[in-house]
Design brief:
alpha+beta; nine-stranded mixed beta sheet; 10 helices; 13 strands
């Protein structure tokens, strides 16, 4: 595998971004990601019970369609808690883009991020579409990855390429997010593009696995947003042998065995690439956490199960007392002990072991041993600083 700390769009994809006027600052605020050919799509959305209008539209389109052509993303306005008017605005933006691209309106996905409770300036978006479409190019990803910013201070991007047979396959991802970050998902958007030829069930499973070990394992402040989206488009332009999770049932036992081996190997190879992209993006979100000075890995070992280990790790990561101790480089590890107990876990004091790396470093490792089994989980988090309070006290 070849790894790149930048966004390199796969074959058949283009992007562009412009300043449409959604943000009063005049910064880039409207991005379009486009596939020249129909692409399979899979998405994961926030678990928040109040969800932005784009997510509601996306769910309808995903149920009705299997081939997608583009993702329209705006920053500066979440189009959430805006009622029927917000749904109408989202639908109108999808329909206007589809008409301009001459594609099915159900082949468009949407994403919005920014202030909750304000109507989307749909007239500005519609006016901007012709210029946005005209400027589509493979190099347009460099503007698009910045147009999705809210309080971000740097771009989150990563690309992996690998071979399936003689065909080169690329998986490229970009993301935004810096605060209001909690699992399932976070205040984040992530868009992943691949030219892999892969079945719908395989792309669904691969995305679920990668999200579970990346975007659902980060927390900055324990706050869950309303618009969080992870979306992947796979257009098959690489022309590789189809990636699937199960072999076709019509082969002889000998051929079936060989086919099964190839199918699983290719799926595992693709999943490894997707996992790497997702984890890199997730960690970059934590590294850009609002006001943060520390990147913290919390690994809980020797738990009975992965869910148990993850639950304990999250209680530590979301403890304000723990987070401010990390900022102050204060070795008061009673705060870790307290967080373990607050998770509801019943454990004897003599079974609980804690190791922490030096606190005067920018990266801190916390290891907790429960002595209950062989399972483990890692959660990535940041410290809590006065700057975080200032940023969010003034965000409007």
């Amino acid at each position: 595998m070849k790894l790149y700390n930048k966004a390199i769009l796969p074959q058949g994809f283009k992007a562009n971004a412009i300043a449409s006027g959604i943000k009063g600052s005049g910064k880039l605020d409207l991005a379009l990601f486009y596939s020249d050919i129909g692409a399979s799509a899979s998405c994961r959305f926030t678990a928040n019970t109040i969800q932005g209008a784009p997510i509601m539209i996306n769910k309808k389109h995903l149920r009705a369609n299997r081939q997608f052509r583009g993702i329209l993303v705006n920053s500066g306005n979440a189009n959430c808690f805006t009622g029927e008017a917000g749904l109408k605005d989202a639908q109108e933006s999808a329909e206007s883009l589809a008409s301009a691209l001459r594609v099915d309106k159900k082949s468009i996905l949407l994403a919005s991020t920014g202030i909750i409770g304000r109507r989307l300036p749909i007239a500005k978006i519609k006016k901007a579409l012709p210029l946005l479409i005209k400027g589509l190019s493979k190099q347009g990803i460099d503007k698009a990855k910045r147009a999705i910013f809210t309080t971000d201070t740097f771009t989150k991007e990563f690309t992996v390429s690998f071979n399936i047979g003689k065909r080169s396959v690329t998986v490229c991802g970009i993301a935004k997010g810096a605060g209001m970050i909690a699992p399932n998902l976070a205040t984040m958007l992530a868009f992943i593009f691949t030219d892999a030829n892969i079945t719908q069930r395989a792309i669904d499973k691969a995305l679920g696995l990668s999200v579970g070990n990346s975007f659902n394992c980060i927390t900055v402040d324990g706050c869950m947003s309303t618009n969080d989206t992870v979306a992947i488009l796979a257009n098959g332009a690489a022309g590789n042998k189809t990636i699937d999770i199960n072999p076709a049932p019509s082969y002889s036992s000998r051929k079936l065995s060989r086919r099964r081996c190839g199918v699983y190997n290719n799926f595992n190879l693709f999943t490894r690439a997707l996992n790497r992209v997702s984890l890199e993006l997730a960690q970059l979100i934590v590294r850009d956490a609002e006001g943060a000075t520390k990147f913290i890995r919390i690994k809980v070992n020797k738990a009975k199960s992965f869910p148990e280990a993850k639950k304990v790790a999250l209680h530590i990561a979301n403890s304000s007392l723990f987070k401010v101790a990390m900022f102050g480089e204060n070795p008061n590890f009673g705060r870790i002990v307290s967080a373990v107990g607050a998770s509801g876990l019943r454990i004897k004091a003599e079974d609980l072991k804690i190791k922490v790396s030096p606190l005067n470093k920018k990266e801190i490792d916390v290891e907790v041993y429960l002595n209950r089994g062989d399972a483990s989980a890692i959660i990535y988090t940041s410290d809590l600083t006065p700057e975080y309070v200032k940023i969010n006290a003034e965000y409007n």
